[in-house]
Specification:
By secondary structure, the chain is mainly beta. It is built from one helix and nine strands; from the N terminus they run H-E-E-E-E-E-E-E-E-E. The chain starts with a helix and ends in a 6-residue tail after the last strand.
C-alpha cells in the first residue's frame, strides 16, 4: 500500500525534476491523463489525441507497414537528447504485426506526430516511431489508473 501511495503522490504532484551531476535535468514524470483520450487520424493519416491536453495517452499499437517500421533511438543523457525525432538514428525495424506500448503522441519540429514507444518515462533511452496510418494503428487503451 505504501508503494502505491508514493507512486500516486508522484504522478499527481505534477512535476518532478531530479538533477544529475553536470547540470542535466531529467524529464518530468508523466501525469495520469483523461481516461477518455483516444488517438484519431486526420486526412493525412497523422494521429492526434482526442480529449487530451498533452502528449500523454497510453495505448497499445500495432505495426501495419508491410516493410516494417523504423524505430528511432534517443539517448537522454547524450547529444541525441537535444535532437528532433526525425534526426535520431534508426535503432531497429519492427516487423509488421508487432504490437507495442506507447506513452503518447508528440510532435517533431515540422509538426509531425511521433509515438514515444515504451511504458514510462524512467530510463536513459527513448524510442520513437511515426504516428501515421501508413505505419501503425491503435489497438487498445492501457489502463494506468493508480487506484
Amino acid at each position: 500500500m505504501f508503494k502505491n501511495l508514493v507512486i500516486r503522490l508522484i504522478f499527481t504532484a505534477g512535476v518532478f525534476f531530479p538533477s544529475f551531476p553536470g547540470g542535466s535535468v531529467a524529464t518530468p514524470l508523466l501525469q495520469v491523463q483523461n481516461p477518455n483520450t483516444y488517438p484519431e487520424a486526420d486526412k493525412n493519416g497523422d494521429y492526434h489525441i482526442v480529449n487530451g491536453k498533452s502528449g500523454v495517452m497510453p495505448w497499445v499499437w500495432e505495426v501495419v507497414d508491410p516493410e516494417g517500421l523504423n524505430v528511432r533511438w534517443q539517448d537522454r543523457t547524450g547529444q541525441s537528447n537535444r535532437m528532433d525525432m526525425i534526426d535520431l538514428p534508426v535503432d531497429r525495424i519492427m516487423p509488421t504485426g508487432e504490437r507495442f506500448d506507447a506513452v503518447g503522441i508528440f510532435l517533431d519540429r515540422r509538426g509531425k506526430p511521433w509515438l514515444w514507444v515504451g511504458s514510462h518515462s524512467f530510463g536513459r533511452t527513448r524510442y520513437w516511431v511515426r504516428a501515421n496510418t501508413n505505419y501503425v494503428r491503435p489497438i487498445q487503451r492501457i489502463n494506468r489508473d493508480l487506484k
